[in-house]
Amino acid sequence: MDKILIIDDEEDIRIALKRVLSREGYQIELSESASDAVKRIESGELFSLVISDILMSGMSGIDFTKFIAEKNINLPVILITGNPNLSSAEAAIRYHAYEYISKPVDRTQLLSVVKRALEVKNQKDSDLEKLMLSEKLEKALRTQNLDLNRQNAAILNATSDAVITINHKLIIVSANKASFDMFRFNSPLDLIGQNVRILFTENKMQKYMSQVSNVLSQEPNKSTLQLSDVTLQRSDSSTFLADIAICSYSLDGDSFYAGVIRDVTQKKLMVEQLIHSERRAFLSVVAASIGHEINNSLTAIQGFVEMASRENADLMLKDRALKVTLNQTEKLRALTSNLLQLGKSVKSNTEKTEVLNLNSEISSVLQVFKETAKLKYCQIKREDSTERIPIRMNSDQFALLLSNILLNAADATNNIGTIEIKAYIQSKRGHLIVTDDGEGMSQETLDKIYEPYFTTKELGKGTGLGMFVVKQIVENFEIELQIDSTPGKGSKFHFIFPEVSES
């Protein structure tokens, strides 16, 4: 309920005004002097409106209005007077009185003015409350932003990754502590304010700057870029490999681009060591499995040579011994040739590559594995293998890739299932699909399949590195790998190789 204070030194007028306004539902308080009203307000008593006479003993209504104006209180004052004149009217306007009414006061006019005055006061109160709330929220936001900035600064300076921000002109505008350590800059001025080109080597400059420019051409807050195995240059001209993630954002109408740079040199060395370890493991399996084949060939050669060496050996036996020896030595030559190919030094990088025939490479791997203990009793189905399908790799890495898939397929079928191999070319890209009818994999296994040392095999029957190595190879050669597996129904591995130009 709105509370109205009536100030007048004449009791009859105070009572008359109270009677009129009380009937309209207003709460009315009375003061016989302006000085008494001031004391009540200063003590903290709240009013919605004041109706005051102008001419009173002691403090006048004009002086009271001046007090309210100087205190900047949102309290409308309606002045009434029995002696209206220009001087009092000017004073009322000067001190922002809401209204100036002459006596005798008309009831209808009074109620109308009171209603409007209260509406104005309530609107101002509402606006002031919103303003105060807005200022409070703004202050809280500034405090929060300050805290976030401090937290971000602490995080940026604590991380070992370099975080560098550039503007739309490719100028470096900020960098964390790790950036100066990673690129070996002694002074911030050696990096801040420089063009981002100083981070790239000359021979890779055009390639990487083209990719960065592509991000800059896109709409801020929506463009991201992931770069792997980027060769970067330190201030002393030494180089290192890094993975870079770039994101864009806008601030005060300007576009900025933040790059998180991670040195992966040690990671690459670890991957090479893991691949080498896995190669040694699977070559041991292959060597043990084909040992009996070598012994069989040597036994056949030795037996026929001994028979042909006897004094009573006829020409037919000697001729047969010669043919068996030639056949078995050719078999051994092909076998050792393939084993030597598989045993070459591991190079996980993609620099030493050549255009290969996918079908020929598959045949080479199968030649080694077809009589091994693991694959000997598997039924291997292979579709047309005469088409030339160009892929860019090296034989060593492809052999390691396919060997791991075949060995896993053999294990999944308990070495007695069916393995289907299909190779074809589509949209100028080579495709290789290896399917088995083994036990299949659950979603949980699929989620962990690329983790190093993860295996579902019994202790001592698997290193847990096979699929990790496969993942590294497909990433190194930009091969797409799609896996489809259902428990109890088998698995399908679909490799899609990049397009190759043989010109």
TrEMBL record:
GO biological process assignments: regulation of DNA-templated transcription
EC numbers: 2.7.13.3
GO MF, one example: phosphorelay sensor kinase activity
Entry-annotated residues carrying 4-aspartylphosphate: D53
Annotated transmembrane regions: none
Iron among keywords: no
SMART domains named in the record: HATPase_c (SM00387), HisKA (SM00388), PAS (SM00091), REC (SM00448)
Pfam families on file: HATPase_c (PF02518), HisKA (PF00512), PAS (PF00989), Response_reg (PF00072)
Domain called Histidine kinase: residue spans: 289-501
Keywords: ATP-binding, Kinase, Nucleotide-binding, Phosphoprotein, Transferase, Two-component regulatory system
Response regulatory domain mapped to chain residues: 3-118
Keyword Nuclease among UniProt keywords: no
Top-level taxonomic group: Bacteria
Catalytic reaction equation(s): ATP + protein L-histidine = ADP + protein N-phospho-L-histidine
Gene3D superfamilies: 1.10.287.130, 3.40.50.2300, Histidine kinase-like ATPase, C-terminal domain, PAS domain
Name this polypeptide is given: histidine kinase
Organism: Leptospira levettii
